[in-house]
Design a protein that fits this description.
240 residues, Rossmann fold, alpha/beta, 8 helices, 6-stranded mixed beta sheet, 27% strand, 36% helix
Length: 240
């Protein structure tokens, strides 16, 4: 599973500085600062309503800050229009969701290949890479199966393959084990660990402390729209 972004560990994959986000009279982010190095795995935790999801949406370019800087893979997202943001997401960001977000009327292979076809990759080339990814993730035998007939663990593996299709600089995971049984959740955790070990930059938003401590090297705790505390998880992940 080759990635092309394990460049310099010191290079910033994500840089948020002084980010505020208001929704009417509600302030979701309140001067949040966060830097993530290329190749790092960072978990974000905090109570419901603390700003975790808003933070993830900022990094993904799905929402814009009221003020402050959001930079991903060296690109200041404020300089992109909506079309530019969509293209940037497709080419540089992979996303894994709690409820998979697969297209119900496409079989697994086409769900994965579509991510590359949307960036202009020819269909045959996209399908070839999609099959390689499904094979590496252990679900190639389910390539012609529609999402409804896949188990939760299989659906999340297909979703991970889709997220990796365009060799993203950054992989975002929003509660990636939240809809899975314990066995499937363990498998997805192992997969995230393996991806980070080969250089994939990860930003994981979760309520699950076990997921955070197993899969990330740094824990960022958010409260009231800003980073309240950061701690290294290197010792815990090394012991896992």
């Amino acid at each position: 599973m080759t990635t092309d972004h394990g460049r310099t560990m010191r290079q910033a994959a994500v840089r948020l500085e002084g980010v505020h986000k208001d929704f009417g009279d509600t302030r979701a982010l309140n001067g949040l600062d966060l830097h993530i190095r290329a190749g790092e795995a960072v978990a974000v935790m905090g109570p419901s309503g603390c700003g975790k999801s808003t933070l993830l949406n900022m990094v993904a370019g799905l929402d814009r800050p009221t003020s402050g800087t959001v930079e991903v893979n060296g690109q200041d997202l404020s300089g992109l229009d909506e079309t530019g943001l969509a293209l940037f997401r497709r080419r540089h960001i992979g996303m894994i969701f709690q409820f998979f977000n697969l297209i119900d009327d496409l079989p697994a292979l086409d769900n994965v290949a579509l991510a590359a076809q949307l960036t202009g990759t020819p269909a045959r080339q996209a399908r070839r890479r999609a099959l390689e990814l499904l094979d590496e993730l252990g679900v190639a035998g389910r390539k012609d199966t529609y999402p409804a007939a896949l188990s939760g663990g299989e659906r999340q593996r297909v979703a991970v393959a889709r997220a990796l299709m365009n060799r993203p600089a950054l992989l975002l995971a929003d509660e990636p084990t939240g809809a899975l049984d314990s066995r499937s959740g363990e498998q997805v955790m192992d997969l995230l660990i393996d991806l980070n070990q080969i250089g994939q930059t990860l930003l994981i938003v979760t309520h699950d402390r076990e997921l955070a401590t197993r899969c990330a090297g740094r824990l960022v705790e958010v409260a009231d729209g800003r980073v309240a505390r950061e701690s290294s998880l290197a010792a815990e992940t090394g012991a896992a």
